[in-house]
């Protein structure tokens, strides 16, 4: 006998709402239905273990089948099944206070609709014109039933014959979603959402290559690993197991540096494995590599809010039933369990880094160039992590030696403290381009840090604040005596006329470099110091570098590069030029500068030592020197 009825909703537009507002996420129907089938299977195992089910468990896999001819997808399980009463309770009775409230509150977040109202099964109507449920309960003496609905509130339910317990969900795919009848599409979704489910997921048969073509075998094609690495005990795993799992997650990737196996039962449940990958360059390219699961069901690979921002650079898997399948941004921001999980992950990462540093510092130093982006990013964005990481964060000098903050402070404090009691941290970001400046600093007995990482310029600003009475300055930001000023600068005794003459002579011979400006500066340095040097203001250069990585600082990025051409007025060559042009008018100074090989040579040598002599100017420099050989 067939029973007719209406689904228990207060309005008649539930299905149009589902179709309209969940359409952008329509692929999740398969995740929801397969997850339901897995739940039904797991419940049967539980009943059997408790003695409430005494029958044969048999084959407990979940099967997905496509029938292109009839336009259907069938999801089948041999789990607990449902009785007529259970169909009515779990499928027919969906209570909404009103469609308008529903729309206003959830229309912007499709996942929240399903998660909030328990509409996993009803996601099937996003892709179907009709859905049938054929089910038989595991309970003795129950009849099998068939439920059918065409996407309106009306449904039919009737008693049928079904030999085995379990449930078949049959989706009659609508015209807009025929792509889901393609094997490749379903295979892709199963591998995305169901790759690690705890029950075997069968999709078709395995194939083998024979006689030049792919032949279907009789063996079930199981698409998932029911016992993934993160669910196993760390004591049972070897390094090779972790590396193999990493390659399964990220084929063709370089071997990870380290990993952390998470296994928490209280006050929340969290398992997973997080890897420190080898990062070559671009930070953003390596984001969204952590996969979030809930009871082995894939949820998302956008884990901001669950994992601290700096750890989104890590790779791996997190699994927590305390984070529901359908999570919204607002949920993540307010949920206390999520905050606890985030804090715990930060602590575990800090613990692991400290452990490696203490037990194998040489290995830690060896990996530092790849590892430091995680640590620096964390220190810049998380004060609690800074407190932990400051003990293990390293400063590496241009000789390749690594020091902790305290070790480096001890190294330089006696020699690199200026007259105002500031500790001066000299750094270079390119050993080759700044070689002459590094060498000049070393000749003074100073040490130079190598700051060539993506976040080092940000670190310099933060560490100045954290350390106090400290300055980080690039080794080419000024003359070495001014960088670590031990005494007041020697007074420059030039008249305005002399400055004007020198300015004209040198400015007239500077090559034109795109988006680059030069200012002539005068310093009374040691007579043995270089006659001409090029420096760049630390603040402006730092702002320009930060603007390239940080939105909202575009103003600095658009400004031209500004350099100082520093003339050492105590050097014999500069003194001679001053003598030769003294009292001359502008035209005469220009003529002298054009004919004088010394001025062009001094400028070119300064540009060359700063990596700025290029193109025609470099060619002319080479020709001029060849002629003088």
UniProtKB/TrEMBL annotation:
The keyword Signal does not apply. Residues 25-177 form the Histidine kinase/HSP90-like ATPase domain. The keyword ATP-binding applies. Keywords: ATP-binding, Chaperone, Nucleotide-binding. InterPro entries: HATPase_C_sf, HATPase_dom, Heat_shock_protein_90_CS, HSP90_C, Hsp90_fam, Hsp90_N, Ribosomal_Su5_D2-typ_SF. CDD domains: HATPase_Hsp90-like. Belongs to the heat shock protein 90 family. This is Molecular chaperone HtpG.
């Amino acid at each position: 006998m067939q029973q007719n009825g209406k689904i228990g909703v207060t309005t008649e537009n539930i299905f149009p709402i589902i179709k309209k507002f969940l359409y952008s996420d329509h692929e999740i129907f398969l995740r929801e239905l397969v997850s339901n089938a897995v739940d039904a299977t797991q419940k049967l195992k539980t009943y059997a273990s408790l003695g409430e089910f005494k029958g044969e468990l048999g084959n407990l896999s979940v099967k997905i089948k496509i029938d292109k001819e009839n336009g259907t997808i069938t999801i089948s399980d041999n789990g607990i099944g449902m009785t007529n009463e259970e169909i009515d309770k779990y499928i027919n009775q969906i209570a909404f206070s009103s469609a308008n409230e529903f729309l206003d509150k959830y229309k912007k977040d499709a996942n929240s609709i399903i998660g909030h109202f328990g509409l996993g099964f009803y996601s099937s109507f996003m892709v179907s014109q009709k859905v049938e449920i054929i089910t038989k309960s595991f309970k003795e003496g129950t009849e099998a039933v068939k439920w059918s609905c065409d996407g309106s509130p009306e449904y039919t339910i009737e008693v049928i014959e079904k030999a085995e317990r379990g449930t078949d969900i049959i989706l009659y795919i609508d015209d807009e979603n025929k792509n889901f009848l393609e094997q490749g599409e379903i295979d892709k979704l199963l591998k995305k959402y169901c790759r690690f489910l705890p029950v075997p997921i069968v999709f078709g048969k395995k194939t083998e290559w024979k006689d030049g073509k792919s032949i279907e075998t009789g063996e079930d094609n199981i698409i998932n690993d029911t016992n993934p690495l993160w669910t196993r005990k760390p004591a049972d795993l070897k390094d090779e197991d972790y590396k193999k799992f990493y390659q399964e997650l990220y084929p063709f990737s370089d071997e990870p540096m380290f990993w952390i196996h998470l296994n928490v039962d209280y006050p929340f449940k969290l398992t997973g494995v997080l890897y420190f990958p080898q990062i070559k360059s671009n930070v953003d390219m390596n984001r969204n590599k952590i996969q979030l699961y809930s009871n082995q069901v894939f949820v998302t690979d956008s884990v901001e809010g669950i994992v601290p921002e700096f750890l989104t650079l890590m790779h791996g898997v997190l699994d927590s039933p305390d984070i529901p399948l359908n999570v919204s941004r607002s949920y993540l921001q307010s949920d206390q369990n999520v905050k606890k999980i985030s804090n715990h992950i930060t602590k575990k990462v800090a613990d692991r880094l400290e452990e490696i540093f203490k037990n194998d510092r040489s290995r830690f130093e060896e990996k530092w160039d790849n590892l430091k982006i995680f640590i620096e990013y964390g220190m810049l964005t998380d004060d609690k992590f800074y407190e932990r990481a400051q003990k293990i964060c390293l400063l590496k000098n241009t000789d390749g030696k690594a020091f902790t903050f305290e070790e480096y402070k001890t190294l330089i404090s006696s020699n690199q403290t200026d007259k105002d009691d500031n500790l001066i941290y000299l750094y270079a970001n390119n050993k080759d381009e700044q070689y002459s400046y590094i060498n000049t600093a070393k000749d003074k007995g100073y040490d130079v840090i190598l700051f060539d990482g993506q976040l080092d310029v940000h670190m310099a600003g933060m560490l100045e604040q954290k350390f106090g009475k400290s300055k980080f300055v690039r080794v080419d930001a000024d003359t070495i005596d001014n960088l670590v000023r031990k005494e007041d600068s020697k007074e420059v005794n030039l008249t305005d006329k002399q400055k004007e003459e020198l300015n004209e002579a040198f400015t007239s011979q500077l090559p034109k470099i795109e988006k680059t400006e030069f200012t002539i500066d005068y310093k009374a340095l040691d007579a043995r110091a270089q006659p001409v040097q090029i420096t760049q203001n630390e603040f402006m250069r730092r702002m320009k570098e930060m603007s390239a990585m940080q939105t909202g600082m575009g103003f600095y990025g658009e400004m031209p590069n500004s350099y100082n051409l520093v003339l050492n007025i105590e050097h014999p060559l500069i003194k001679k030029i001053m003598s030769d042009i003294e009292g001359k008018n502008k035209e005469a100074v220009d003529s002298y500068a054009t004919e004088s090989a010394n001025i062009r040579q001094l400028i070119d040598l300064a540009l060359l030592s700063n990596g700025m002599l290029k193109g025609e100017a470099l060619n002319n420099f080479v020709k001029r020197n060849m002629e003088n050989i």
